[in-house]
Every structure is written in structure tokens, then in C-alpha cells.
Sequence to fold (261 residues):
Amino acid sequence: MRPHGTGSGLAAGDVTPAVLAIGRPDFPNVLIETLRRQAGVGHCMVFALSRAGAASCLLDAGNIPTGSDLGAAYAGQFHESDPNRDALFEGAGSAPIMLPSFAPRMYGARYRKIFFADSGIVDKCATAIWVDDTCFYVNFYRIAAQGRFSDAQRAQLRAIAPAIGASVARHFQHSTAAPEQNLPALFATRVPLADLTPREQEVCRHILLGLSSEAISQALGISLHSTLTYRKRAYERLGISAQNELFSIVLRLLAGPSRLN
Fold:
């Protein structure tokens, strides 16, 4: 299976690297690189908002030099005047939330000056997901040197937002990955992946890492025909027909017993 669509070798909409980085120290860097490849995101910030009114900045990664200061300012007081706040709390539940398109007029004068004019931010998109009493609020930014998001980039962000939000929430719920969360152990212990034969599991793990069928054959020392056969059998056992469906199974299992959809 050869990926299509991006120069990195990842298919359009493929956020597998970020999912596989859940619980690892390099998760912020992997996340922003994935977002940059898939939708031209320059900077990402994640906030945790509680029903009781508390806020904290969990992640600040990308190309805004004052990002940490902005995160502290937002968590300190400006979260209370965020025009998206009502939509975040009204949307509380298990489903991902996609916030309205960015418009400067939505924000007060002081907010606009600090968070947009002074920082060089010219556009943002955002998604959120509630887990129990915590809202994980994920913001995607572009600065003046990049220009605004294109329609295609916005559409791409809408497409990947549920997986990105779930991955972020899972990462910060479990900042240290449990042993069973590494990929080989996931295949060895969690149904339906554990129902595959050892060779089918190997092929699927390499597919998740973005390798083409030819590269998988070389890595495993088997013929291309054998690789395609193992992939076909694995997909039949799993009841799927494409790589994105395999990714969805892994994401669901990584979400484990927590209430992530």
C-alpha cells in the first residue's frame, strides 16, 4: 500500500505519527510536524478548561516566539473573555467540537492586540473535546509570514480534528505511556489486533508507520506478493479495506477505557 498526497510520504489526513507518539516526551514536536505537513499549521497550543472555571496551558509548539507568554496570559485571565467559550461549554459531551472560523471582530480590543497584533497571528482554527470534567481545547495558528489558512487547509483541519483532539486528550491523560500502549504490545494484547497472525501483525504495524508495500517487503525479507497477501488477510480478519480504517482501530484502542470517541 503506497501512501499518496504529501511529500513526507504520509497520505493526506494521516495523523498516525501523532497517535503513535501519545505518552512520549516528543509528542509536542511530532504533533506540530504532523499538523504542518497535513494542513500548514504554524503553531499549536492546547489548553485544559474545567467546568469550575480553571484554565491551564498544556502545550505550546511551533513558530510563535512569544507562545509561552501567550499561553500563560490566556490561562491566567483571557480564557474568560474568549468568544469561543460559550461554544466550548455548550458543546460539552463526548463528541469533538469544531469552533467557528476566525474573525478578528469576534475579539475585544485588548485581546486582539495581545494575541494577534503583537504576536503576528493572522489566522486560527480550533477544535475541542471533553473528557469527564475537562475540555481539551486545541488551537491551530498561522502567522503573517505564512498568510491565512486556505480553504483546502481548513477542510483538512476539519477532517483530522477528531483524531487530533482525541490524541491530545489521551496524551495528557496519560503523560507517560503505559507498557501496553507501545505498538507491538497493542497488537499482542488487544482484540481485534491480537487475533491476527504474527506475520499479519508485522505487516499491519509497518503499514501504520507509513511504509509502502515494497518497503515492508524489504524490511521483513519477504516477497511483495507475500506482503500483499498478508495485508489482504489481515484486513479481512479486521473487517476493513483501507489504511485509514486500520488507523481508526488503533486510535480507538489507544483511547482505551476512557471516554474518548
The two ends are 27 Å apart (CA to CA). Residues 8 and 37 are 7 Å apart (CA to CA).
